[in-house]
Amino acid sequence: MPTSQLIAATEFCIYHNIELSFIESLQQSGLITVVVQEERLFVEENELPQLEKMVRLYHEMDINLEGIETITYLLQRMNDMQRQIAELNKRLSLYEG
Q1: Between the CA of residue 16 and those of 49, 84, 92, what are the distances in Å?
Q2: Residue-level pLDDT at 96
Q3: Whole-number Å distance between alpha carbons of 55 and 22
Q4: Half-sphere exposure of 47 toward its Cβ, with a 13 Å CA cutoff?
Q5: What residues form DSSP beta bridges with 34?
Q6: pLDDT class for 17, splitting at 50, 70, 90?
Q7: Are strands 34-37 and 6-8 parallel, antiparallel or unpaired?
Q8: Rounded to whole angstroms, how far apart are CA atoms 54 and 83?
Q9: What residues form DSSP beta bridges with 42?
Q10: Cα(29)–Cα(24) distance, integer angstroms
Q11: Using CA of residue 33, residue 7, residue 18, residue 49, what is the dihedral sign?
Q12: What do you get for the CA distance between the two ends of the chain, in Å?
């Protein structure tokens, strides 16, 4: 993967005023994927929106890691169900029309 699509975790932490251990904890919980290159942690660019959402939950709403895990799981389930409902509605419209 080209380095241009990777964001240094330390730079992200400095920008968002968080500890690197927070990103490591998210990675250990399986909430984000980090890439290690030359003993440095990097976050893939496509993971930034989700990571920034978790940082806001942690800082602004004072939600701990376990709460973030639960919220992330429930939001993913909700998104999956919404996709499934849309697909079922599409299939149903074929029979109704």
Answers
A1: 13, 35, 46
A2: 86
A3: 9
A4: 21
A5: 43
A6: very high
A7: unpaired
A8: 23
A9: 8, 35
A10: 9
A11: negative
A12: 46
Three-state DSSP at 47 gives: helix
Token pair 């980090």: residue? 34
Residue with the two structure tokens 């496509």: 46
pLDDT tens, residue by residue, 78-89: 999 999 999 999
**CA-atom Rg of the chain in angstroms:** 17
**Which CA distances in Å does 26 have to 4, 32, 85?**
22, 6, 30
Helices assigned H by DSSP within the chain: 9-16, 20-28, 48-59, 65-96
Residue linked to tokens 């080209």 = 2
Which pTM does this prediction carry? 0.78
Q: How many residues does the chain have?
A: 97
